[in-house]
Structures are given as C-alpha cells and as structure tokens.
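Hello Y.,

Per our agreement to keep a running log of every chain we model this quarter, I'm adding this entry. I've kept the format consistent with earlier entries: sequence first, then predicted structure.
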Amino acid sequence: MKNVTSFSSPGILVDNYPAAQRSLRIAFVTETYPPEVNGVAMTISRIVEGLHARNHDVQLIRPRQDASDAAETGVRFQEVLMRGLPIPRYPNLRMGLPSKRALVQLWSLHRPDVVHIATEGALGWSALQAAIHLKLPVCSDFRTNFHAYSRHYGIGWLYKPIMAYLRKFHNRTQATMVPTEALRRELETGGFKHLNVVSRGVDVQQFSPLRRSQALREQWGVAPDALVAVYVGRIAPEKNLPALIAAFEAISKNDPRAKLVVVGSGPQQAELQQRLPNAIFAGQRKGEDLAAHYASADLFLFPSLTETFGNVTTEAMASGLAVLAFNYAAAAQLIRNGVNGHVVEIDDAAGFVQAAIDMAGDAAGRLRMGEAAAVTAQALDWSSIVGRFEGVLDSVIHRAEQPYRSPIVAPQRRVV
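Predicted structure for the entry above:
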C-alpha cells in the first residue's frame, strides 16, 4: 500500500513511494543450514543474512539439528525448528519430515508475503503444499543434483523418477532459481519452467591469498618450494574421486615431493586414504581455518561432475589458487583457460590428468593464473547476489498480486 503525505499547500497530495524495495515478510524453508558444513548450507546462510540486513522480515524454517539446537528469535531473524532425522551415511546432516499441517497453522497466524523453498525434501514438499493451500506466492531453488547423484550410488534407474519429481515440484512454484545459465538451459530442455539465473558469491574478505600460512605448510611437512595440491569437498562417490586419484598419482611420479591435502569428510574416506596413503586428510574445516587451507596450497584439483555450482571453485579462486576442473558449473562460467585456471571437457579424464601434470610443473604459470583468479573472484560480491535474489522474490509477489488489481484502462481518444 502507498503512503500518502499531505503538504501545507491546500489540496496537494503527493504519493510517498519507497526509495527501494519494500520490506518483505519472507518464509525461508531449508533442510540444511550452518553449522552443517556444505555448499548449500553456506549459500543459504549468506542469502538469509543478506535479506535480513536489507530489513526484510525473515522467518527461517529448518529441521532441528540436535537436542541442543535452539531457535533464535529477534536477534537476527525468527527461526522455526521442525522435526528431522539423520541422513543415511551422513549422520551430521538432517532431513526434514512431512509438516504440512504445522506450516498451514503457522502461516495462517503469521502470513508471509512469499515462501521460498531452498531444498526439495519432505519439509520442502510440505512447504509447497502449505503455500498452495493458503494461496501464497512461492518460489524455489534448484541447488543440488540429486538426479545426478543417483548414478553414483548404484540407483541410476531412479534417474527418471527423480527428475519427474523435481520437475513436478519446481513447476508448481512461480519461479525457480538456478546458479548458472548452462543449468538453466539443461533444465529448460527437461521441461522445467519459470527459471531464473541467480549466481553465487564468495566472501573475498575471508578467502584471500593473504591467508597463506607458512606455519601450516610446515605442519603439513612440505618445503617452502614444494607443490601442495588441495581438494575441498565431500569424500563421496558423486565427487568423481578416481579422477583426483589419477591426477595426483601422475603429479607424484614427476614430483615425489608434491603433497595432496584433502579437506572434508564422507563415506569414501577410508578408501581414499588407502589409495593415497601419503595424502594429508584434514577433515572438515570452517572459517579462517578453511581459508588458510586453501591459500596455503598451490593448486586446486576439483574433479566433480555433479555440482549445480560448486562454491569451492570460487573459494579457491578468491584464495589465489590456479584451479583445475572440468568444463562444468562454476568452472565453466568463470574460468578462462590459461588465464585464471584450466578446464577440460567433461568426458576427457585423460585430459584432466595431463592438465594436472602440466600445471604442477609450471610454477610461474600457476602463480599468474592464481593472481588472475583472485581478481575474477572480486567481482562475485554477495551483496549483488542477494539483490538479484530479492528481485526475483519481488517479481513473484508482483505477479501473484496482479489478479487482485483493477485493470488499467487506457483513456478513449475523442475523434472530432
């Protein structure tokens, strides 16, 4: 509704339009959130905090992570904790349970302007059904390639049903946000509608070449001039770890002093440790500690082919690392070969290994590409990403309001 201000001059009324976006009541539904450690949780946290900083009223709805997890209200934003269960093989992650009745009751008492659903699990489906029931504007994120993961867990036959579910889920919303133009085209070909590209940012204050630590390198047992390659991510089948193993084994043959640091955890850790017994397994890292692990390395190896974006790519670039990845997701969008990193085609496993050998043997080239990568990352500011996200929310609300507005009828022109 517009505010109307009356001035001293009689008979003059001036519409006082807001200078920027109006403050929105946003119900944000997600099944992962910090302190859970994954790219989706981190991204959602950045978006939620950014919306709150822009004076929007954010209601964060998520599963309770453990018995000590307590909701916060009023300090940053309102949190509503729902029932959840551990995800099989990932006990530190939770999944939501069906909660439509509770959400209908919640949103009937405190009606949001828009519902945003970040994950497509049982809690996300319940939120979608509740929003439709209450005729609330609703939008969603396509953040994780569950359909691609199925191929890596021996259940490839589920690919089509999973895609059918995801298409049904997202097409019932007024907008679905995707992080890259390539993914938008892929999903559009698969029958997804109302797709909007909203990329992801990186914190260049946290991830920076200035975080490089000689003390940490000494802890790893490497000489100042020795090569350190780093991998950051889940140690799981969907991350294409055979390519990582092949690449580092090839590097080691040419340079026995080279060291691989693996940051993360997952169900294939024991197997990877057996294949790479001299690698350093640093476990999960957060904050400045994670930033130091990036910046203290010399080369980032990222073999994954199941990312929707791949936040670790931008974190490595911001840390001043030359990145080797497949021509996919964030790497395809941001890396220019030989300038700020190197990408190989997704079906070229041998090319990935050869590029690893070439980059490992070219210290000057790695340094030049790392410096350029850090410059590229500077443009990925979170405030602009949140602004784009905010714009999509506003457009969804605007479209939902259209049926309730009186049509604007152009005045008839008199012909004399």
